[in-house]
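Moderator note: this is an archived Q&A kept for reference. The question asked for a predicted structure of one protein chain; the sequence and the answer are reproduced below.
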Amino acid sequence: MIDPDRLLRQIQTVLSINSENPPGSELALSRYIAKDMRSLGLSVRTYAYAPKRPNVVAVLKGTAPRRQAAAGSVLITPHFDTVPIGENWTRDPLGQEIVGNRIYGRGASDDKGNTAVCMEVMRSLIEDKIKLKHDLIFAATVDEETGSHYGIIPLLERRVLRPGYAVILDSDECHAIVAQKGLIHCRVKIFGKKAHGAYNWLGSNAIETASRVIARLKKVRFPYKRHALLVGPTVNIGTITGGDKVNMVADFCEFSVDLRFLPGTTGGEVLKILRGIIRRETIRFKVQVDDLQRPYEIAAGHPLVKAYLNEARAMHIRADRKGSEGATVMTFFQKHRIPAFATGFGASGTAHTTDEYARIPTLVKGAKLLERFLIRFDREGR
C-alpha cells in the first residue's frame, strides 16, 4: 500500500541531494537510489556512460516463464538530473520546504518528485507481495536535461533496456502524453567580408545578413498537417553573436534556432526549408545541427494508454490524452519499436522555474494511480 508519509520523506530526501545538469553531478543521488532499491531485494545494476554519472536499473521479476515475463515487461522511467538551481529563490532549493500542500525544491516537479513516486511504488508492490506476471523495470536516468546522451539513449542503443512497453514519468497533473513535436536545435553561421566601419560598402556585413535571414525565418509558415493535440510549428531564435568591434564590418555572425514540428513532417523537410530561406539572402553560410528528434505519437486506443486512463477514471482522477509541445525521452523509444507514453505528477508550469514546487496530494494520488495501473495492465492490458 502506498504510504503517503513515507513517500513525502522519500521526496524530501531526493530533493535534498543536488543533481544539477549542467554540470552533471548525479553521482550522490544515483548511489542513494541504488541503495534504496537494493534494500528491497531487487536486482539492481548501474550503467555509466560518462564518469560519475550512473543510471540505475532495478528489476522486479515477473512470475511468468522467463521469456514471456521479459517480452511483456513494463519500464517506468523518470530522470533524476535537474536544470541548474539559478538565482533569486525565496525558498531553499535543496531544503525540501513544505508550505501548505506544496513542497519546494529544484526538481520537485521535474523530475525528482516523479522519481520518488516510482521508488515508493516499487516498495509498495514488494511489501504487499504483489505477484506480477511480467517484469517491472525501474530505470532512473541521468542527463535528460542536456539531451540524454549519457542516459536513456545509450541504455536503449546498447540493449540494456529492452522492455515490451514504456511509461515515461516526466510530466504533470496525471495526464497521458500521447503525442509530441519533433525538434531541431541548430546553429546558423553566416559569413561576410571585413572592412572599416567608415567604408562599410567595401565589406559584407554578416550581422545585417543574419538579421534579414531571421526576419524571413520568423515569417515563414512551415507546411504541416493539423493535429488535435498540438499547435502548429514554432521557430525561436535563442542566441546570437557576431562581429569584432563597433567600427568594423562583421565578417561572421552565428545564431541558434529552435524549430518544433509536428507528426507527419520530417526533420529533413524542415532543414530543406531553412536552407532555402537562408539562400535567399546569402550563399555563404553553414547550418550545424546540434540535435534532431523525431515527432512521436502513440495510438489513442493503444492498450497501454487505455489501461492507464481506465484506471484513472476508476479512481475518479481527471486524466486526459494530451500532446507535448516540448520534448520528453518518449521519442527515443520509437526507433526500437517500443510503445510508450508519458505521464507524471508534477505541478503544471513550475518545471525549470524559480521556487519550483509540486503539490503533495497530487504526488500521493499519482503514486496510487501508477501502482494500480501497473497491476491492471499486467493482468488484463495486453
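Archived answer notes: Residues 182-293 form a domain with the Alpha-Beta Plaits fold (CATH 3.30.70.360).
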